[in-house]
Amino acid sequence: MTERRTSPRYEVVLKLRYETKEAFGDTVIQSLSSGGLYLSTQTPFNVGSQFAIVIDLPKKEEWIKGTCEVVWVNEIDTENYPKGMGVRFIQMAPEYRSRLEAYLADMNVGKN
Length: 112
What we know:
This protein is α+β, with helices and mostly antiparallel strands. It contains 1 helix and 6 strands, in the order ββββββα.
């Protein structure tokens, strides 16, 4: 399988709130990059589904809002990933994009 990611992915544990036309809920982010993320959920959406998100960042009173699209689904719990879905960001205001980039840059510094 060819790797399609164009930016580094970081293993994280962050809370995420999602909202669709039909429902809303809370879940956990397993990994994060500037292009998207992986969500743990027992009820993943279909590939192509779009939904709004709010990610709680560790800094007090800081969050990221945007819109995502499901690009792949993991229907079973595996050793590498719990059941869930991989999504890509399709819309994010510049303010939230800046917060995301700053958060990822801080994570990259911590790896060195």
